[in-house]
Sequence to fold (398 residues):
Amino acid sequence: MLFAAITLGFIALVLAWPVPALLPGAKWAYRRPTLGLLVWQLVALIGGTSMIGSLILLGASTFADDLSDAANGMWRFVTHNELPDGSSVWSLLALSGALFLTAHLLLNLLVTVVYAERERARHSQLITLLSEPMSDRPGTRLIDTPAPVAYCLPGALKSITVLTAGLIALLDEEELRAVIEHERAHVRLRHDIVLIFFTAWKVSLPWLPTARNASREVALLLEMHADDNALRHVGRGSLARAITVVAEGGALPKRSELSAALPESTPKELRARLLRLA
Amino acid sequence: MNSLGELERSVMDLLWAGSESFSAYDLQAKLAERSESGRELAATTILTVLSRLENKNFVVRERQTRPHLYRAAAAREAHMADLMHEVLGGASDRAAVLERFVGQVSSEEAETLRRILAGR
Fold:
């Protein structure tokens, strides 16, 4: 039992630090984003469960020889309030740690989902009032503003793709198609679900730098995944040009209320996306 | 987008366009003028839309007069600035619900991107 606990703890440690530190930027993942995404999801899932599992085994190792023994002991404690023979304050500490960690992760996931859903509803309300539906493209709305921006707002039932007049003015037909197919891929492949799990992970474990890395890298892989799907409809050149033009912000006027809100740019990630199209 | 949403948008467009306050009946008449069929919507429908918009803080209701008058809580531009701020990355991690095509970069970085593009 103790050996199993230590092994699981070791796995949890490896998946919590060296692996997520080494994974970002991996060439094979950029070549095949689906594989990269699968690996990240496994790392998060196995890492989390082995962290909890090793605490449970560690706590149970003082009073049990195998898993059924351990389960029995814990069950008797819950139902009869009877501490199993051989248990110590350490076993209680480890077991309550496991319980706390599980509750913490689940609660954060729940809060993140609820919060995101509320934000989504609020944003969707703004979009309803400020944009017009595009009659020739279902599920797509147009905002009359000069900044070239495209995004999608995924929803449980209905997703909205939003384009700006500035974007349409700046891109040619093929480039525009690349943008739209990219956004449609996000919607169709439910990238928002993957993203919300990693956001919740980051919010739950903010002290773990790798949780932050993971959600950034997963977001980038999701973009690449959407790029790959857009490439089924348009040429690489069109997509690459669209990425460059939109990233540059076109003729975004200086000192407008928009330039104040420019986000932290992600040039390294953009370069990675462009280089795989080259 | 449902038709209720479109109706909310038409009402807001009218309120944003005029600087004065309107009663539900003013809006009813103006909407009928604008619609292709020229048919008037039921006054209760307009009132429902207005109270929804009031609940969401888009509309302010003036209760001193009868019938009540309604005006936009903020200019269209202010809401637009809010929206763009949200989209361009003013949101916290938890509120990050949008998936953008690409983020904006600085002009030097854009130059590098163009070089990559030219080298293809």
Notes: Chain B has a mean pLDDT of 84. Chain B has two domains: 6-72, 76-118.
